């Protein structure tokens, strides 16, 4: 009798889910199958435009530890293995000055105690620890040395399971509070329920609203698409400085206030200690030092599944039936670069029967119509867009521009039902104000000579050669590939429902967290859009990929996977 009741309840639950899915797919939101959509520009709400105010972290540091070596800035990130999760944290305080005694990483253990939720934390995992420095010339008294950064890989986890954990050194004792997280589900039929996406966070009151709204929507995974702490907008003495003089590579001194990273990490712990968070670098993470080292804080403060790529600046990972590709815009990306060759191998090895969805993310957008950063990443697009298109990338996420924009399906500036949907979500909070002006408005089109790639070099800002904007660098109206744009602070949530339907919702800070401002079902059409796999310069039908792969000889050379042409 009990078994019969349980079976009936499960059947009823399945029917409810099925009916709900049918309703939301067909009733509430438009789908990309109905596109392309007529471009929409939401008028600026000037009541939310004003001076951006930073959180008062110097007077009241958020979540400052109460006892010595108590873990702080706790964060989770996914590894390349579905059954493993990285746990990172910091103990001890940072130090400022040239003549200081750095903390000894070996003086504090790196331990995670964990177990399935409500079953006890009876498992132990140990890891490594280290420190880093941000150095200025001439024995500068403002040199920064971090606290002890700990990193532990927790292995042997079951999929789609809630775990509880504490981290720290149990021998002191100095352990964190108990935190919880859920592992990613198993592919191919299961997906993380909600993936939060945001860029341009900073540490302002707008950031606080964004993160509190995002946490209230209970994401299973978070993607941060660059411009994280904006520490480089602060001079080495901690004052907000003119970013044109201290943030760009041509500056003789790359000033940055590293304690801003510590304040940001403490604040973000309300999200990162419970939600695996994957990051990709933005231009504000470059932070060039006196010895020309770059991305030091970014590389040390986050854990990455970078074994296959060999770089923290570009990598990939799976989350249930989604394969994510995180690309670097500030590292060589041309067809002869390590990044491009890795990307070609990575995309070739994606099994769409296991991970049907293919999502790419990097910092500067290719299809932004705002005046700021307009066509700034054109050289990257020229080099990489065809490869992503041939492999059937479904969605692209970007930041950089301090506004929101969603494209129609597009490829090479042309409406294409097989092209990806490009989504810019760069207005998470930041230390500057929103981007308001569009390049297609009178007098706003930038001079093409002012749009070279200022980080990687090269100039690709040529006029359009076809379409409504032929002969011009900008359109004279909102381009047809731009479906929706709005200047508001906010973030987005991606909910993959099945192998073909994913719901994208963008939430504005001025609304309640449950109210979306822009929503659409992104629908895959694998039968209509067959993938054309490119490998070692040879293009083959996707259906032959498995046979081709069997005939390849893989060799390891200089710690890098070398794949010779297939025969």
UniProtKB/TrEMBL annotation:
One Pfam family recorded for the sequence: Metallophos
Signal peptide (from-to): 1-27
A molecular function (GO) term: metal ion binding
UniProt domain Purple acid phosphatase C-terminal: residue ranges: 472-515
Enzyme class: hydrolase
EC number: 3.1.3.2
Cofactor(s) needed by this chain: Fe cation; Zn(2+)
InterPro entries: Calcineurin-like_PHP (IPR004843), Metallo-depent_PP-like (IPR029052), MPP_PAP (IPR041792), PAPs-like (IPR039331), PAPs_C (IPR025733), PAPs_N (IPR015914), Purple_acid_Pase-like_N (IPR008963)
Location of the Calcineurin-like phosphoesterase domain: 202-401
The Purple acid phosphatase N-terminal domain, residue ranges: 71-183
Keywords: Glycoprotein, Hydrolase, Iron, Signal, Zinc
Top-level taxon of the source organism: Eukaryota
Reaction(s) the record says it catalyses: a phosphate monoester + H2O = an alcohol + phosphate
Family: Belongs to the metallophosphoesterase superfamily. Purple acid phosphatase family.
PANTHER family: ACID PHOSPHATASE RELATED, PURPLE ACID PHOSPHATASE 13
Descriptive protein name: Purple acid phosphatase
